[in-house]
Specification:
With 299 residues, the chain is α/β, with parallel strands linked by helices. The chain has helices at 11-18, 39-49, 70-91, 123-138, 158-169, 185-197, 214-227, 259-265, 272-296; strands spanning 2-6, 25-29, 53-56, 94-100, 143-147, 150-151, 171-175, 179-180, 183-184, 202-205, 212-213, 235-239. It is built from nine helices and twelve strands. It starts with a strand and ends with a helix. The structure holds NADP nicotinamide-adenine-dinucleotide phosphate.
């Protein structure tokens, strides 16, 4: 099975590659190998590789910067998926595209179902919604999976940022009035592979199970990391969104209803805290082996 993965340096792409079945022959294209906003390059790459499946894990993901870089955000998050959908159609490839809880405004008061009306608050969310629409228009049979609060042992994410802040300052002030669902990139990648294998088409939601505020998530990171002796005592202080203004507004309640996904996969996702423990164990093991290698020194 020939598989193309875009955005190959990112959290999700790395997890998709790591969780692939052995029979998958993966062409992993980083932003340097393929700029998805370049439609000519996208078409050429897809015609050359003739993949059966394309996972689009490329995205402009800096939510706050998108407020002042709308052109770039839309080029990557709308025009990129549009070009990938058109190229998928040309070669008969299946397209798995990933989107975000930030397409919602957070005002609904219950978990969002795939068919609920999307109303993004910021440029990033608007550009991702435009990407979904472009994919659905060009390739209605494409699979579009919205997810949220993604983290992994690599790249830029809340877990790594919190560990750094907690280790250097011994405390963290974290927003307690935004509610979502932390999601391990590995679990998301597994779900994408399985949704594709199960023939899913259209819009689905995937997050790990359970809900949390950023404060709950930070508190769990502190507790679990302490249990692994990665941190000493840390004070995590809850604050409000008003205490921590950001350029991009964020939804206050963007929990995604994943029932449709869990029904297709035959089981609910693992709870986010279980997944967090797994990621922290990897980070801990990596830090220990780095320390051992430094201790050994050059041979
Ligand atoms: N992270 C989250 O919390 C979160 C939440 C909800 C949804 N999502 C969605 O989940 C998907 C995966 O996110 P992630 O967390 O894996 O993001 P990530 O770690 O930021 O990875 C995104 C990747 O896309 C690449 N990229 C950026 N511009 C590109 C371009 N023009 N052409 C090709 N590649 C480009 C980046 O490369 P460079 O680093 O070289 O620029 C990076 O490797 C995205 O669709 C994102 O919108 C993420």
């Amino acid at each position: 099975m020939r598989v193309m993965v875009t955005g190959a340096g990112g959290q999700l792409a790395r997890a998709l590659i790591a969780r692939a079945q052995p029979q998958a022959r993966i062409t992993a294209l980083s932003s340097r190998d393929l700029d998805v906003s370049d439609a000519v390059a996208v078409s050429a790459a897809v015609r050359r590789e003739k993949p059966e499946i394309i996972f689009n894990a490329a995205a402009y993901t800096t939510v706050d910067r998108a407020q002042t870089e709308a052109d770039r955000a839309f080029a990557v998050n709308r025009d990129g998926p549009a070009a990938l959908a058109a190229a998928s159609r040309e070669v008969g490839a299946r397209l798995v595209h990933v989107s975000t809880d930030f397409v919602f405004d957070g005002l609904l008061g219950r978990p969002y179902r795939p068919e609920d009306e999307a109303r993004p608050l910021g440029v990033y969310g608007a550009s991702k919604l435009a990407g979904e629409e472009a994919v659905a228009a060009a390739l209605p049979e494409a699979l579009i999976v919205r997810t949220a609060w993604v983290y992994s042992p690599h790249g830029h994410n809340f877990v790594r940022t919190m560990l750094r802040i907690m280790a250097t300052r011994g405390e963290a002030r974290v927003v307690a009035d935004q509610i979502g669902a932390p999601t391990s990139a590995a679990n998301l990648a597994d779900a994408l592979w399985r949704l594709d294998a199960g023939g899913a088409q259209g819009v689905y939601h995937y997050t790990d199970a359970g809900v949390a505020s950023w404060y709950d998530f930070a508190q769990a990171i502190a507790e679990e990391a302490r249990g692994l002796n990665m941190l000493g005592a840390v004070h995590v202080q809850p604050i409000t969104t008003a205490d921590y203004p950001t350029p991009a507004p964020r939804p206050s309640f963007s929990v995604l209803d994943c029932t449709k996904t869990w029904d297709l996969l035959g089981a609910p996702a693992p709870h986010w805290r279980t997944a967090l423990r797994e990621v922290l164990a990897i980070l801990h093991a990596t830090a220990q082996s780095d320390r051992a290698a430094r201790h050994e020194g050059p041979r």
